[in-house]
Design goal:
Number of strands: 8
Helix content: under 10%
Radius of gyration: 15 Å
Number of helices: 0
CATH topology: Immunoglobulin-like
Order of helices and strands: EEEEEEEE
Strand content: 35-45%
Shape: globular
CATH architecture: Sandwich
Number of domains: 1
Largest sheet: 8 strands, mixed
CATH class: Mainly Beta
Length: 120
């Protein structure tokens, strides 16, 4: 697999930030997402790996498979508990429990810089 890719996000709290992922295999061909339609997650947390009891619960943002790509969005309701100035990381993962898949693939990951919403 040619993923995960890395994409760093600058997010303004209260806005909607949308992006699409077009995963490709190691040969550069479009990755077939048809078997992963219901199994995509977009998780935002303060660190990667296992979280401790003292860590905040990861945030689930919007992610859906739409044909040949994955549509992702951080919406205002997703960012309620995000704090400006706190570093965040995220992962977009697809999974399928049936053979020959039976794996979880991270297709994109990166960091998120949060800025308070600008008000007048």
């Amino acid at each position: 697999m040619a993923f995960p890719g890395t994409y760093n996000i600058n997010y303004y709290k209260g806005d909607t930030y949308e992006f699409n992922i077009y995963p490709k295999d190691s040969a550069g061909n479009q990755f077939d997402l048809s078997n992963f339609a219901g199994s995509v997650t977009f998780t935002i947390a303060t660190k990667r790996g296992p979280l401790l009891e003292t860590d905040p619960t990861p945030i689930s943002a919007r992610a859906i498979v739409n044909g040949t790509h994955i549509e992702c969005a951080i919406r205002p309701e997703d960012s309620i508990d995000m704090v400006a100035g706190t570093p965040y990381v995220y992962d977009v993962q697809i999974s399928h429990s049936e053979q020959p898949y039976n794996k979880v693939y991270t297709v994109l990951n990166g960091s998120i810089t949060v800025t308070d919403q600008v008000s007048q």
